[in-house]
Structures are given as C-alpha cells and as structure tokens.
C-alpha cells in the first residue's frame, strides 16, 4: 500500500479562504495531513512565481482559496489571480506537470464544509497522480 | 523601447542540455517593461527550467542575476564574479545585452533566452506594437508623428496604397492603415497641406542597416 501523502500548499485569501478555514477548524472537519496554509491579504497578491515556487519547493499540489468573482474587496484581485493561474498552467504544461496540480477554489466566509471537502478531494486526486516529479526536495 | 518575447521553452531546454550549472541573466530595462526578461520573468523561467530538468533526472543549478541594464559595460561587469562559477549563461535581455556579455566574457558560452522583436510602444496592458525601425533618418515631422516605415506594411513614403480599405491594411485586416492614420491626424491638426510635399526615397544604403552595422561616435564624450 502506498504511503505517499501529497503535500498541498493552500493560499487563503483573508477575506474568504481564511474565515472558511477557521469555520472548518471550529467544526472540527477533516483536513489533509500534509497541508501548508499561506494566508494572503487578497488572492490578487499571489504572483505567478509564488505558484511555481510552491511546486518547485516541494508541493505536490497548489490550491488558492479566493473570493467569488465580483465579490473581491479589492475589486479585481481574484480576476488577476485567474490570469496568473492560467499563465502558471501554461508553464506547467511546458514542464510536463499535470494541470490538476494547481487550482482555484472560490469560497465564501461561511464555506467551512466546502473548504474541507475540496481539500480532501484534492488530496485523493493528488494521491492518484503521484508525486510532483519537478519538485526539488 | 526594445520589445522581446521569450523563446520557446523546448528550445531553451535544448541549449542548456549539456550543462548543469548556469547563470540566468535578466535585464532591468526594456525587457522588464515588456515582461520578457526582467527579474520576475527571469525567476519564473529559472523555476520552470529547474523543475523541467529535475523531472528528467538531470538537475540544473541556476544562479540568477538582473543587472540594471545588461547592455551597459559597467552593469555587465557586475556579473564578473559569478561567471567563473557557471558553465554557461542564459541571457533573457535583448540581443544587445547578449552581445555585451559575449564581449565581456569571451570564455563563457552564452545563449539567448528571448527573441528581440521590435522597437515599440505599450498600447494596453500586455499589448505592444511596433513603432520604429531605427532607419536612421527620421521623417516623423512630415507624417504627423506616425511612422510609415514601421507601421505601413509596404513602407510607403507617399501613401496610401490601393489596399487601404476602411482605414485598415490589406496585409493584416486588424492593422490600421498607417497612411489613414497620418491623413486623419494631419487633418485634425489642420496640417493637411504638409501631405502635398513629396517625400523623397530614403537613402537606405547611407543611414540604414543596408550599409552594415552602424556606429555613433561623440568625440566630446570619449575618454
């Protein structure tokens, strides 16, 4: 039986992802074992390089918890994130990394259950994909 | 400013295949503005190259540096200490910067990471268009500040041609006809009479690249 436990780096917008995480913790919902949380003031703060660096530095998958579109406190943050994730995916294709290793998930402040469920599903998906062969451990 | 685009990733990987430690040198000037080879794009490319090589079991160590202007000898010289520690250089500056490093570091193999494309203007975020071909004999005073050499597909000096239709060029329908732009702007400035003057043929063999690489010398600045 495989002992591979994928490492997930989850960037959390402080306006949505972080409160959703807090709710998940309050409800004592399940979380993947190998999870690194990175709070950001807005998902628009995340540059393409952060996403690639996370993969390069050991993540098997990267997730960004962002506000729903048209619901960004800073108006365009999550729209900019979408472009940057798209660009990062283009680069990942060139490297030969699977697109599933990077994903945006939109949440509201009260989405604790969704937050937990998505991460658990992502961990399952990454377990099937196997380790990120591009990471430099 | 000079505009450039990153070369295809596979092509860069192929250049670097024989090496396991390189310097990736960006440039803090033009290629930073067009997001082709500044500090950020250099870091992205370095990260992608490291992962691609890791993935095939041939790790690549990349030192990163971004001189303020790679095309200036003083800034290029900043890389001197690093050069001795690498087997090759990948430069994501324009072709001028690549050649400056080639001149300063004759013993080190150097590869271009971008295709230097044109002298252009930022027309919108993420969109750049050609505006100048450095012909060496500017005639913008005659053409309402719009260059027919860079912007007319046929480089007509006394246009437009018969292919101009509804203000668009017959070569590329999405491209504005330069001579339509020149006419419209001259008209709005009340300067249409300027267009009655015939612009003589350019002496391409004198001022332009046709007579070989050009050189500017300012005796008063030489030391």
Features:
heterodimer; A: alpha/beta; B: 223 residues; alpha/beta; Rossmann fold; 4-stranded parallel beta sheet; 18% strand
**Oligomer state of the chains in this structure:** heterodimer
Radius of gyration of chain B: 22 Å
Number of strands of chain B: 7
Beginning-to-end CA distance, first to last residue of chain B = 28 Å
Q: What is the CATH top level name of the largest domain in chain B?
A: Alpha Beta
Q: What general outline of chain B do the C-alpha atoms trace?
A: elongated
**How far from one another are the termini of chain A?**
23 Å
Largest sheet of chain B, described in full? 4 strands, parallel
Domain tally of chain B: 2
Q: Spans of chain B with pLDDT under 50 lasting ≥5 residues?
A: none
Query: Whole-number radius of gyration of chain A?
Result: 14 Å
Topology-level CATH name of the largest domain in chain B: Rossmann fold
User: Taking strands numbered 1, 2, ... along the chain, how are they ordered across the largest sheet of chain A?
Assistant: 2-1-3-4
CATH superfamily of the largest domain in chain B: Response regulator
Any idea what the CATH architecture of the largest domain in chain B is? 3-Layer(aba) Sandwich
- How many strands appear in the DSSP assignment of chain A? 4
Overview in brief:
The complex is a heterodimer of chains A (137) and B (223). With 137 residues, chain A is of the alpha/beta class. Chain A is 41% helix and 17% strand.
Overall description:
The complex is a heterodimer of chains A (137) and B (223). Chain A has helices at residues 17-26, 48-56, 77-95, 112-129; strands at residues 8-13, 35-40, 61-66, 102-106. Chain A is an alpha/beta fold and 137 residues long. Chain A has a four-stranded parallel β-sheet, sandwiched between helices. The longest helix of chain A is centred in the middle third of the chain and has 19 residues, at 77-95. The two termini of chain A are 23 Å apart. The relative contact order of chain A is 0.26. In chain B, the strands form two sheets. Chain B has a four-stranded parallel β-sheet, sandwiched between helices. A three-stranded antiparallel β-sheet of chain B has the order 1-6-7. Classes of the chains: A alpha/beta (137), B alpha/beta (223). The interface between A and B is medium-sized, with 16 and 13 residues.
């Amino acid at each position: 039986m495989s002992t591979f436990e994928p490492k997930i780096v989850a960037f959390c917008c402080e306006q949505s992802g972080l409160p959703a995480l807090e709710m998940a913790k309050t409800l004592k919902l399940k979380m993947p074992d190998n999870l690194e949380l990175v709070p950001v003031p807005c998902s628009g703060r995340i540059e393409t390089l952060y996403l690639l660096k996370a993969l390069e530095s050991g993540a098997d998958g990267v997730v960004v918890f962002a506000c729903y579109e048209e619901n960004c406190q800073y108006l365009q943050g999550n729209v900019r994130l979408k472009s940057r994730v798209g660009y990062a995916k283009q680069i990942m294709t060139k490297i030969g990394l699977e697109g599933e290793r990077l994903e945006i998930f939109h949440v509201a402040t009260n989405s604790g259950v969704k937050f937990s469920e998505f991460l658990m599903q992502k961990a399952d998906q990454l377990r099937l994909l196997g380790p990120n062969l591009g990471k430099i451990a | 400013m000079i505009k450039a685009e990153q070369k295809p990733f596979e092509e860069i990987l192929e250049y670097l295949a024989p090496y396991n430690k390189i310097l990736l040198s960006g440039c803090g000037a033009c290629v930073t503005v067009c997001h082709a080879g500044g500090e950020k794009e250099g870091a992205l490319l370095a990260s992608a190259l490291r992962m691609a090589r890791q993935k095939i079991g041939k790790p690549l160590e990349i030192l990163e540096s971004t001189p303020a202007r790679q095309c200036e000898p003083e800034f290029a010289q900043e890389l001197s200490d690093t050069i001795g520690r690498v087997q090759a250089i990948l430069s994501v500056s324009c072709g001028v910067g690549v050649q400056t490093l080639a001149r300063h570091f004759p013993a080190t193999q150097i590869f271009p990471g971008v295709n230097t494309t044109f002298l252009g203007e930022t027309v919108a975020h993420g969109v750049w268009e050609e505006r100048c071909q450095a012909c060496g004999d500017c005639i913008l005073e005659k053409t309402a500040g719009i260059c027919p050499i860079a912007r007319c597909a046929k480089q007509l000096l006394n246009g437009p041609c018969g292919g101009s239709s509804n203000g668009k060029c017959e070569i590329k329908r999405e491209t504005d006809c330069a001579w339509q732009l020149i006419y419209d702007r001259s008209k709005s400035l009340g300067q249409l009479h300027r267009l009655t003057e015939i612009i003589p043929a350019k002496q391409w063999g004198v001022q332009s690249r046709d007579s070989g690489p050009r050189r500017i010398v300012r005796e008063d600045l030489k030391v």
